[in-house]
Specification:
The complex is a heterotrimer of chains A (about 525), B (about 325) and C (about 325). Helix content of chain A is about 30%, strand content about 25%. Chain A has helices at about 5-20, 45-50, 100-110, 145-150, 160-165, 230-240, 255-260, 300-305, 310-315, 340, 350-355, 380-390, 405-410, 430-435, 455-465, 470-485; strands spanning about 25-30, 55-60, 65, 70-75, 80-85, 125-130, 135-140, 190-195, 200-205, 220-225, 245, 260-275, 320-325, 365-370, 395-400, 415-420, 490-505, 505, 520-524. In chain B, helix 1 (about 1-30) crosses helix 4, helix 10 runs antiparallel to helix 12 and helix 11 (about 275-285) packs antiparallel against helix 12. Classes of the chains: A alpha+beta (about 525), B mainly alpha (about 325), C mainly alpha (about 325).
């Protein structure tokens, strides 16, 4: 390439940037999987959907619930019935008017067997339109937390969806395809302009958006590109090819921050990383001792908890981008207290003594299963833990695998020592208990691979769903946490910290669920 | 000739069936699609239900038969990950991979034969030695590292070339091409070099080695003795005679370029079938994985066929043998 | 001649070797001497790593995480420890990790290539010489095999082995699984090349003559045809060794390979590439340099061997 063409090219690029000042080029690790808002219950898919579609309510950039398509919501005299007032004068991108019928249709669609969102709505028995702008939802029992289950439930236009034969979400087994997988018609601040999966999605501002005047709406166009490789993603930001990236690798934060044209914004994420141990089995398959399960002894679990040096992990592995913790619950969650979150002191000597007390003074060996593409520096954290546990005599064989192979191990009970991360979309402890503490069964405990199964505790956990007295409910939550902590059911490591890298001129806060809502973004 | 091709075609069908079998049995080890399909909020009952609905509980032969029955009709089902027909997805992504493979193949072939011939003609030359040694760097580092190093130098530090994607593409009757736009061509450069470097080195070394050998053979000496020009000897005789093994290897390399595109496409976020495949592995998207593997098998079978036919035409000894 | 040779003493044999054309050719090529030295030094260092390396990077219990990211030749800010080539994100001494890593990489590479050569050359010889149905069968298997990128074969073998090997041995077997995976994915090249040569050679007069005087087929193959395949096989094998080492790195890039607690050279590079933009250049640079020198030397050595061994080139 000759020098003149190069200069000419660079000039064109610069001109283009100047002319479209409000175009935002956005990159993150994963693409949205589908434009159908009910087909996948997954972060990147919801994030894109949030730009195009809206729910009755949503979380703002601070994680607080704010009105979206509903202007108000409350429990009626019947504690089982919630009433939602629907915003008037809202139109879909295709021009259709939003009515209560669309809301009822969308929720019923999200409850269908092929929907990925059905579990979040399992407590809702009926949804009905009382009038054009009022919706009643009847739950199977009092459900004080219903609103926090609805922030990712998007409203579609009934007529448009039915006309395009997409009344039900994609049936993966049945074949055929849904029109709404590649087309969208929402009420949101942005409209889909073009989309090639895994490559490029272009969104344009919705000129008829109801929120004009309510939100800053300074972005007029979004070009979204997934960039899977972390190094390439950072390179794209450093080279100025994108304006905003999620998932900045922690080691590159200082480089991005040091660049005068760029900045990094961080905030605690709604996700805690921890280890789980199979303490319920009579004998472990992967350990070196026969006939017994070392994890069954609470002293061993306590010793392991003491052996972990969370501060060192934070400082070296996470580059200070984590919040070490003593509980498997992010600070936003109802039930969290500073006392629970206290980081256990690292005490190798005491841990060794506990090991000796438990009869494992000579140590033992065990296999740790770890994902290598799911959490921030997951494999490196596991490696660090291997070293720390080695110091109290536990020889850990590390098996690090891609997430598609790691999570089924937990699901199928094929691992005895594993890493897991947990986010709490409902911002309430009940969600953690249901999946991680309740004994494993058909509806509860699907992620509890610790073998822990206590009938009294299970009953307490189930009672949380229908307890309407907040104080009594919080007291029960406290009792359950006490058991989890004294039993050392899990070994908490840290709360993840989210990092977003962006051009210096952008004003944007990190959203704790890792969901940027671009209607809030402003420019200097 | 026709009998020869027919025979190969029958063999090709068998190959495809075996690939289907191996590919299909492989999926049981890649992970569990149910895990990716259901969110964190799943219940054990929901998992069991979906597994049943997707037919994952059926005996292996039943699943394989169902898969092959669909595959024969070009019907691979719906992608678990992107909820779209697999054939549509592959058709959409194939142009990106083929264009990348074509350009890197071209780089490898032109560069490989050019450098190879030069190094063979001047085996003691300083430049030859330099080319020979420098080319080894391309095969002494993993592809992903070369890609990242190129991004670092040309995208981050020099800002000459884009670090990811295909740039702007033009749609010509369903075939999206990056050849017609400036940004499309710029975007091709780094991935094509990354992908072609290894093949370039291989072809170059092979050409040089074969050519050196031929140059010392008797008939080249006769040609010299007959007073033929250097040019005629070098290109008319020596190069022509080195082409048989070069064609074999190049034929094989076309296939492995497409296979290795997996890594390059991941590093450069190149939206081709390789990236589609990697994403499918991570998601355990069985329909896409199986279709991709069969596609690769098909490409290989076709390439093998072409190589065999060319072999047949170039080397008269083989023709004589088959006539016997 | 073969019988006579057995009576020659060791000393005579060494003297013969030192006086051979091969050795003289070796002395005449300085770059080959340098390459040989590099391979020898790296190979020896790798072989003797447990005695040469200042630390044992594979013993996780002896690592101090706070030593992580020490700069080369500079004391660590927290611990004050100093390392020649710095440390990585786990506090592993890079120098020791390179030695131990090269040990694993070389082992995997040599074993995998050896396995591939034995398999590929035998199958190629048989296919090319016997021809007919056997040829068809072998070459179609090769086609099927080639249809699969090596990383897929590795994934498959990994999956199968996972279900076969008892949990407590999985980690120990990882290296063997890799060897099997890489070797199995690489034999086709040898088979096809050897077969091509055989098909051309076997129609030549000397083979026909040997057949006529009643020499057994396997003898013809081994004594007459095999030597003619050495050249092409060596070219592929030299690149193949570097390729095997790099294939291991690529697999680890995709999350399949040796356990991260016992990194090979390739795994070290995979880990190091994450630090390219962040300023910790030494985590990538030194292992990459070691791999480069190793692979480059092996290739140069192979180049020379090829020219020197080929009777037609003398």
């Amino acid at each position: 390439m000759t020098r003149t063409t190069l200069v000419a090219l660079m000039a064109t690029t610069m001109l283009a940037t100047a002319a479209n000042a409000e175009t935002l080029r956005w990159a993150r690790a994963g693409d949205s999987l589908t434009l159908d808002p009910h087909s996948q219950n997954e972060g990147p898919t919801h994030t894109l959907a949030h730009q195009i579609y809206e729910g009755l309510l949503q979380r703002d950039m601070a994680g607080e619930i704010i009105p979206a398509l509903a202007t108000s919501w409350s429990v009626t005299e019947d504690a089982n019935v919630w009433e939602f007032k629907i915003r008037e004068g809202v139109t879909f991108h295709g021009g259709q008017e939003l009515t209560a019928e669309d809301v009822v249709f969308s929720f019923e669609r999200a409850k269908l067997p092929t929907s990925a969102m059905k579990e979040l709505l399992s407590s809702i028995e009926t949804i009905e339109a009382v009038d054009d702008y009022t919706v009643h939802m009847t739950t199977s029992g009092p459900n004080p937390l219903l609103p926090s289950n609805l922030t990712n439930l998007f409203v579609m236009d009934k007529g448009w969806t039915e006309e395009n034969d997409s009344a039900a979400p994609q049936d993966f087994a049945g074949g055929g395809t849904n029109y709404v997988t590649t087309n969208a018609n929402g009420t949101g601040a942005f409209m889909i302009d073009s989309r090639e999966a895994d490559s490029r999605t272009v969104l344009k501002a919705n000129p008829d958006y109801w929120g004009i005047g309510t939100f800053p709406l300074e972005v007029s166009e979004i070009i979204f590109t997934p960039i899977q490789s972390p190094a390439t993603r950072v390179a794209a930001l450093l080279s100025g090819e994108v304006d905003f990236i999620q998932d900045v690798p922690v080691q590159d934060l200082s480089r991005v921050d040091a660049d005068p044209a760029l900045k990094v914004v961080t905030a605690p994420q709604n996700r805690t990383i921890f280890f789980g141990m199979q303490s319920g089995k009579e004998d472990l398959e992967s350990d070196s001792v026969d006939g017994t399960n070392p994890f069954a002894d609470v002293r061993v679990r306590q010793a392991m908890n003491m052996a972990l040096n969370r501060e060192a992990i934070k400082r070296v592995v996470m580059r200070d981008q984590s919040a070490p913790t003593g509980v498997i619950m992010p600070p936003f969650v109802n039930g969290w207290s500073e006392a629970l979150d206290t980081v256990p002191a690292t005490d190798v000597e005491k841990a060794k003594a506990l090991m000796a007390d438990a009869g494992y003074g000579d140590g033992f060996s065990v296999t740790l299963n770890c994902p290598n593409d799911r959490y921030i520096n997951d494999e490196a954290i596991c490696q660090a833990a291997v070293g720390m546990l080695g110091q109290i005599g536990i020889t850990v064989n590390l098996e690090a695998r891609p997430k598609a192979q790691h999570f089924p191990l937990i699901q199928n009970g094929e691992t005895e020592f594993y890493m897991l991360g947990w986010g709490v979309p409902t911002f309430d402890s009940e969600y953690i208990f249901n999946f991680l503490v309740h004994g494993r069964g058909d509806t509860f405990g699907s992620w509890n691979n610790t073998g822990f199964n206590d009938d009294d505790l299970n009953a307490k956990i189930v009672s949380l769903a229908s307890e309407t007295d907040q104080d009594a409910r919080n007291a029960t939550i406290g009792e359950i946490w006490d058991v989890v902590q004294t039993e050392t059911l899990y070994l908490p490591i840290h709360h993840q910290v989210l990092n977003w890298g962006m051009k210096d001129g952008i004003n944007f806060d990190v959203q704790p669920e890792d969901q940027p809502h671009f209607k809030f973004m402003t420019f200097n | 000739m026709i009998a020869f091709i027919l025979q190969r075609l029958v063999q090709a069908v068998v190959v495809m069936a075996v690939v289907g079998l191996v590919a299909f049995s492989m999926f049981r080890f890649v992970g569990d699609p149910v895990d990716s399909l259901l969110g964190q909020d799943r219940t054990q009952a929901g998992v069991a239900e979906l597994r049943e609905a997707l037919g994952l509980n059926d005996p292996f032969p039943v699943q394989y038969a169902r898969f092959m029955a669909g595959a024969v009709q070009g019907e691979f089902g719906v992608s678990y990950r992107l909820a779209r027909p697999v054939s549509e997805l592959i058709a959409e992504r194939l142009p990106a991979t083929l264009e990348l493979a074509f350009v890197s193949g071209l780089i490898a072939l032109i560069g490989g034969i050019g450098f190879g011939v030069y190094c063979a003609l001047r085996p003691r030359g300083v430049l030859s030695n330099f080319i020979m040694s420098a080319s080894l760097i391309g095969v002494s580092l993993p592809t992903f590292l070369i890609g990242i190093l190129l991004i670092w130098i040309f995208a981050v530090e020099l800002r000459w070339l884009p670090s990811f994607g295909r740039g702007d593409t033009v749609d010509i009757g369903g075939w999206t091409t990056g050849f017609l736009t400036v940004s499309g061509l710029q975007s091709l450069i780094l991935p094509a070099i990354t992908l072609g470097l290894y093949q370039l080195t291989l072809i170059m070394r092979l050409v040089r080695a074969e050519m050196l050998e031929v140059m010392r053979s008797d008939y080249i000496a006769f040609a010299r003795a007959r007073g033929l020009s250097e040019r005629a000897i070098n290109f008319g005789h020596a190069l022509k005679n080195t082409l048989v093994p070069v064609i074999t290897v190049t034929g094989l390399q076309v296939g492995s370029i497409i296979a290795f595109a997996i890594i390059t496409e991941t590093v450069f976020q190149w939206p081709g079938v390789g990236l589609l495949f990697i994403n499918s592995i991570q998601f355990v998207d069985i329909p896409v994985m199986s279709a991709y593997l069969l596609l690769i098998a098909l490409i290989f079978v076709v390439i093998n066929l072409i190589v065999d036919v060319i072999y047949f035409r170039i080397d008269p000894r083989l023709r004589a043998e088959s006539a016997r | 001649m073969a019988v006579e040779q057995t009576r020659i003493t060791l000393r005579e044999r060494i003297a013969n070797a030192l006086d051979s054309d091969l050795f003289h050719a070796f002395l005449a090529s300085p770059i080959t001497i340098v390459a040989t030295l590099c391979v020898l030094v790296l190979g020896l260092a790798a072989l003797l790593a447990p005695w040469v390396a200042p630390h044992d990077p594979f013993n996780a219990a002896t690592l101090n995480l706070m030593d992580g990211f020490s700069k080369p030749m500079e004391p660590n800010a927290f611990t004050g420890n100093m390392y020649w080539l710095g440390t990585d994100d786990q506090g592993r001494d890079i120098f020791s990790a390179i030695l131990y890593g090269a040990r694993i990489s070389l082992f995997v590479g040599v074993m995998a290539v050896g396995f591939a050569i034995v398999l590929g050359v035998s199958l190629g010889l048989i296919a090319g010489y016997v021809g007919g149905f056997v040829d068809t069968a072998i070459m179609r298997i090769a086609d099927v095999q080639l249809s699969f990128p090596s990383l897929l074969i590795a994934l498959l073998i990994f999956g199968i082995v996972r279900s076969v090997i008892p949990v407590e041995h999985r980690e120990a077997m990882a290296v063997w699984v890799l060897i099997l995976a890489i070797g199995l994915s690489d034999w086709v090249q040898y088979a096809r090349t050897v077969r091509g040569t055989v098909m051309v050679e076997k129609s030549k007069e000397y083979v026909q003559a040997a057949k006529l005087i009643g020499v057994k087929p396997w003898r013809i193959m081994v004594t007459h045809i095999l030597p003619n395949t050495v050249g092409p096989v060596l070219v592929i094998a030299t690149i193949g060794l570097a390729l095997a080492i790099i294939a291991e790195a690529t697999l680890s890039f995709l999350g399949v390979g040796v356990p991260p607690t016992q990194p090979s050279l390739g795994t070290l590079i995979r880990i190091g590439q994450g630090f390219l933009f962040s300023g910790e250049w030494w985590i990538l640079a030194f292992p990459a340099l070691a791999l480069l020198v190793l692979a480059l030397s092996v290739n140069l050595l192979g180049d020379w061997l090829r020219d020197a061994l080929n009777p037609k080139l003398r």
